[in-house]
Amino acid sequence: MTHTTRRELMALMTGALAGTALGGNAFAQATPKRGGILRISAPANPSSLDPATGGAGSDHAFLFTMYDTLTEWDFETLKPKPGLAESWKFTDPNTLVLNIRAGVTFHDGTPLDAEAVKFNLERNKSDAKSNIKADLASMASAEVTGPMQVTLKLSTPDAALPGILSDRAGMMVSPTAVKAASAGTLNRTPVGAGAYAFVSWADGEKIVIKRNEKYWKSNRPYPDGIEFSIIPELTTGARSVTAGQNDLIYQLPPRQKAIMDRVPSVKVFNGPTLYVFQIFLNWAKPPFDNIKVRQAFNFAVDREAFVKAALAGLAEPAYMNLPKAHWAYDKSVAALYPYDPDRARKLLAEAGFKEGTVIEIGGYNDQDSVQRQEILIEMFRKAGMNVKFVNSPIAEASAAFFGPEKRNSGLLAAWTGRPDPSLTYSLMFTKDAYYNGGRAPVPPELEAAIKESRASEDIETRAKAFATVQRLVMENAFVLPLAFQFELVAMNKKVQGYRPNLLGKPKYDDVWLES
Question: What residue stretches are annotated with the Solute-binding protein family domain (predicted)?
Answer without folding.
Answer: 79-400
